[in-house]
Batch of 2 targets.
Target 1
Amino acid sequence: MSPSLRTLSERLSSTDGSTYREGSILLSDRSAAFRLGVRAILNLYNHYNSANFVASTEATSSEQTLNIAVSQQPSLILLDSHLAGSWERTLNLLIQLQQLAPALNILLTADYLEPQVIFEGMQAGATGCITRDNVATELFTAIDTILSNKIYLSETALKDFFMLFQVQARD
């Protein structure tokens, strides 16, 4: 078991090993390979831990994401920052999701987390941001953090977010 899986496993397990975590996840991403990879990571994690995180549904468009999110109310949405073709359109989708279902937990995924994307995404209601390259090592920490009603930003994203926040506060 990888160190990141072991660390999260230790955090989720109580001293008697009875802690059980579960949740449904909507994979909202334009890449079939990425969605397949996330499913494999979730299956591996569930196999080695007392958890049941299920990628219950997939969406490849804004319309599908809105319909599924409102009708199924998943525990978490992994939302591709360019699902709608551009960040601006995906930002509008994020705003719509928050208006229609404000309790949704949304983890933004991106090839590269630009500070402006992090800042605007968090303002619009995202509960976390993660780069696609780090999904294998950070996904479970992100899920655990978000489902514990906290915000998740990787260390790099956190630094970028606060640098932009400071610049915006000065202006």
Note: The first helix runs from residue 3 to 12.
Target 2
Amino acid sequence: MSSRLPVAAPPRSAWRAEWLRLTAVCAVIATAVDATLLERKKGFFTGGFLAVDHLRSAPEAALFLGASLLADAAVVGVLVAIGLWCARFVPLTRTARSAAIIALAVAPLAIANFISYELQKYLGDAFDIGLMFDLTGRSVEEFFAVAASHLGSPLALVTGGGLCVAGAVWV
């Protein structure tokens, strides 16, 4: 019996495996954060007091989580691919590269979740972003001018978080 050394995976296969692994990790993180915020705000999984919309059975919860995981994977998959492409040009260890790519892929979803959660907490369920946009004369500049006074602390939090992630990746 001859012993053969394992053949190294072709670069495309290795890239695909890393992309799948990082996409799965990012999708699980995004889905877990989404599910936690939905449960905390609306009692989506347990029903809660006066909850209008909630899941009534384990199969409904599993179906919802599966669909959410698939949707999150579709979004973060593109961002992971961009991160993998950009990481080719930066000399990082494998762990640091993975951490940077996960941060890059999850950050837009985390920021969107944070903003929508904070907006709903501040304005309630009656808030309609389309109506607000119409009230500003469908002007993006006016929309941001009105919102600018309320964006200071979230912007500082996002900037600080980004600097912490960049520092952690750098080290």
Note: The chain is about 75% helix and 0% strand.
